[in-house]
Amino acid sequence: MENPRPPAPGFTPPMAPLPLPLHPPIAPIPAPPRAPAPGAASTESDDDDEVEYEVSDDHRAARERHERAVQELLQRRRAYAMAVPTNDSAVRARLRRLGEPITLFGEREMERRDRLRGLMVRLEADGQVDRLLRAQEDEQGGAADEEDAEQIQYPFFTEGTKELLQARVDIAQYSLPRAKARVERAKRRLADPDEDPEAEADLVVKQAGEFVLECSEIGDDRPLTGCSFSRDASMLATSSWSGIIKVWSMPQITKIATLKGHTERATDVAFSPVDNVLATASADKTAKLWNSDGSLLMSFDGHLDRLARLAFHPSGKYLGTASFDKTWRLWDINTGTELLLQEGHSRSVYGVSFHPDGSLAASCGLDAHARVWDLRSGRLYCTLIGHVKPVLGVSFSPNGHLVATASEDNFCRIWDLRTRRMLYSIPAHKSLISHVKFEPQDGHYLATSSYDTKAALWSTRDYKPIKSLAGHESKVTSLDISGDGQQIVTVSHDRTIKMWSCRSSIRDNEMELV
To answer: Which of 296, 304, 445, 446 is deepest in the core (most CB within 10 A)?
Structure first.
């Protein structure tokens, strides 16, 4: 069998052509429809080419909801842009002029105002703007007539009584000579070459550093709240939560009288600066005037909430009381008449104090402010703003131009009445400061009591600490300084009375006994 002949090199046999892929025919792109010429009639072919879209009920309902929401939003914007009275009586008057009921069952002030706003929007939308403007003009005319009538009938100030007027005159006649004498004495001391105020202040501060605990006595079965020396420091009065006030002879702290009359806890006690009568404040909303032998002389009723602190005017004729009803009041102790009801604090008033001249009064309260009032004119002299927590104590310096405030923020701040600004801020204690008082002779030092169980003495030259009076086992609620500045008494929640005296005065007393 004959072998096949191999192909010649370089020769490639011819191949059958591959079939081409088949694609569907491409539809021609339709030309955009031409707008018919104006005035030309449409043909049947145009009608056949138009496509009609059917809108579903859900889409139509959604579109209606959207339109209503837009309309409500626009009406709400117009409503808030409208000027609607804020006074409820003005809202009622406008509703009456528009012919609408002035109130509906269970409708409150804000709801009534919203109803008036919606009514005004509907009137504007309905094209009844003339009716709306006419109601506004009638309202403005009526308001102008009422304003004129009010200006004629009522004064812009609160008219006081004849007793208050006479008291202001008496206070002015009392304070002006004292202020004049104080200024002349200060000028004389500065002009006299033999006088050395700095050396005298150094001596007083040095003596204050020698205060020691002389004696301690249990004052009551309940915590003590207040204490006060008599004018000659021969007696001491204390108040307590039991509502009982006790009078003690000094310096042995021997009880000589017990005053019972308050039905709630007693909050403060103060001796008169001119005689041996004392006043007490209580949580039963009353203040009472007592004789030192324990007989009740008078009761001052009028406060609407419990009392806090109280103080006598330097003349001894008037008594100031601070209360949690956001007011402090001035009373005539001879007649028991309420002379002045002073508002001004936004929260409870806690303390009150009088200027040594008798011309000014200072009040402090839980609104963290202290306010100084001119008793001769009744005007607010200044507001002492700086504390961040309630102010619990206020005291005037004997020099006449310094005021000290004690606060729950643990600071004692010194203010200058001449500039009406704060001079110094003393971080005095580790807890709230319950009371503050200047040394009554020349104000060379001041004393503070605190809930950190201590009392402290501070120099008024540089406001540095002089002495810390530590001895109580609980919160120190109040203190007082004798008229000669040689004795300090403190009372506390530990129910004890503690007497602090200078070593120099103790030595003098021992020499007199010998």
So the answer is: 446
